[in-house]
Amino acid sequence: MIDQQMTEFANLGIDATLTTIIADSSAEPTLITALSQRPWDVVLIGGGIRKTDDLVELLEQVVNLAHSHAPQAAIAFNTNPRRQRAGRSTPTAISPGNGA
Q1: What does the alpha-carbon distance between residue 43 and residue 49 come to, in Å, rounded to a whole number?
Q2: Which residue, 11, 41, 82, 99, is most buried by CB atoms nearer than 10 A?
Q3: How high is the mean pLDDT of the chain?
Q4: Is residue 43 a contact partner of residue 70, using CB atoms and an 8 Å limit?
Q5: Per-residue pLDDT for 100 more than 80?
Q6: What is the DSSP letter of 14?
Q7: Residue 99 and residue 33: Cα distance in Å, rounded?
């Protein structure tokens, strides 16, 4: 499903980068590295993090890191890449990895 959504972003002309994280001590450095790659217009946080009650602390960490390391970026939550079309052109999609 994530591969399909990334293809959908590309088909819509949106330059998106996917960063997957695991809900452990590697999440913070992984996110900081991804968020520091370039100036982002949008940080898109996927449902795998935000729809899981057990990952509320991880969601808070992701939002705080996005705010700190990509302060110019809008923080977005969506379930369908077509909804992102109205946004700017370079979101990063962040989802939990297999260990979450």
Answers
A1: 13
A2: 41
A3: 80
A4: yes
A5: no
A6: -
A7: 19
**Type of residue at 1:** M
62, 28 contact by CB (below 8 A):
no
pTM value is 0.74
Nearest 5°: the CA angle 29, 26, 3 is: 90
Here the tokens at position 74 are 């809008």
Q: Which two tokens stand for residue 75?
A: 């923080």
* Residue 33 confidence (pLDDT): 95
- Rounded distance between C-alpha atoms, residue 63 and residue 12, angstroms: 25
Task: Say if residues 99 and 24 touch (Cβ distance below 8 Å).
Answer: yes
Q: Annotate 51-100 with three-state secondary structure.
A: CCHHHHHHHHHHHHHHHHHCCCCEEEECCCHHHHCCCCCCEEEEEECCCC
Quick one: pLDDT at residue 88? 42
Q: What is the mean pLDDT of residues 65-89?
A: 73
